[in-house]
Structure formats: structure tokens, C-alpha cells
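---------- Forwarded message ----------

FYI, see the YCII-related domain-containing protein record below. Original note from H. follows.
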Amino acid sequence: MPEYMIAFNDEWTPDMSDEVLGERGRRGRAVCAEMEEAGVFIFSHGGLDASTAICSVVPEGEEAVFTDGPFVETKEHFGGLAIIDAPTDEDARYWAGRIAVAVGWPQEVHRFPDRNRHRRAPEQPQ
């Protein structure tokens, strides 16, 4: 089955009290529990924002250069995600809709490319 990421940016979440945020978190976790029961749930996590960024890394030739915190030019910060293994795009859309309604902010759905698509066929002996 295809794997999907349902995700949101931190900037898409409205300002709300800790009480309201806690309730929305409980509602989101309830949807994740439903996805587990349906056999599509793989992983989820939320609560990410600029403060959770450990570092950025950029290539300089053959070297990796690390800097603390998020990439300076970034205006949006990843907020959270759920990874699911759903049979169709329509199923992934359904679960994304359930999450969006439960937490009260927008979600994006991405289908991961087929892992085998980029693998080379084994070389045949000559």
C-alpha cells in the first residue's frame, strides 16, 4: 500500500489557550487511535516549531556545515505529522480531513514515491 504523510506547518495553528490546545491534542490522538484500529497508522508526532530545531546543515563541497537552529531564511516551521499506510489517495484524504477537523487547522497530504521505483534492477551475470 502507498504511504502518506499528513502534515502541518506550525504557522497554520491559530493562537489558543493551553486548555484549548490540550483538548485539540486529545481529539487528534483519538483520530490516531482510530487509524490504528483501521490498520493504517504508522507514526505521528506534533508540537514541533522553531524552538525544536536542533540545527541546519548545508553542503559546502564535500563537507557538511552545521549551524544551530533553523535555517535563517525559513519563514515556516514544520509543526507535526502523521505517517499512514493507506490503500488509496481517497483513504489518505479521509484521514487528513479527520485530523484537520479534530485539531482545527489545515493539513497537507503527501504520497511517498514507491520505494522500488528508484531502485536499479540487479545486474545480470554475463
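H. also flagged this: Strands lie at 3-9, 41-45, 55-60, 63-68, 78-85, 108-111.
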